[in-house]
Amino acid sequence: MNKLNAKKPNPLYGGLALIMLAVWIGMTALPAHALNVSNKEDALQHLFPGVSKVIKKKIWLSTAQRKAISKLAQQNVSEERINVYVGMQGSTPVGYAIFDSVKNRSWPLSFVTVLNQDGTVKDVEVLQYEGARVWNIQYDSWLKQFFGKKIGADYIPNAVTGATVSVRVVTAGVKKASAIYQILFLDKVK
């Protein structure tokens, strides 16, 4: 092959490879604020900083409570027992945490909803997730839409590109946690 017929390398190929690498790194990297904990105790220390203690309440749900929670959350709640973690400052409760683990398609997704005493959402943290598109839902810019809302508020989730199932799963989980708190602690259904 002579020099006149030799193909010169296309400079766009190198740039395209760099762009693809940057996109891949962006999709697989954890955001700086991700809650990176190895167990619930570590998560609770992060969620309730400075409290004197965290009490784990194991609550067996009656049929009436499950029905009331299901109706309020607009979904079937079949759990017979739930755990609610109460952050205490002395003898005063300062917040309630309810953990949830579900399958997002075929991948596990675990998150926690933290509620204030009046039933408003204080925080939502994604703890474990897998899958290429689930990472979008753990950003504060998406999660903050729940903050300050009570059950019965407009829980229509803002869309996240490519994460439709994840958006629905987390939104349903926040609604369920809010309904559990409302029925058990505010309405005190037996």
UniProtKB/TrEMBL annotation:
Q: Name one GO cellular component term.
A: membrane
* InterPro entries registered for this protein in UniProt: FMN-bd
Pfam assignment, any one: FMN_bind
**Coiled coil where?**
none
The FMN-binding domain is annotated at: 95-181
User: A single Gene Ontology molecular function, please?
Assistant: FMN binding
> What's the protein here called?
FMN-binding domain-containing protein
Organism lineage reads as: Bacteria, Pseudomonadati, Nitrospinota/Tectimicrobiota group, Nitrospinota, Nitrospinia
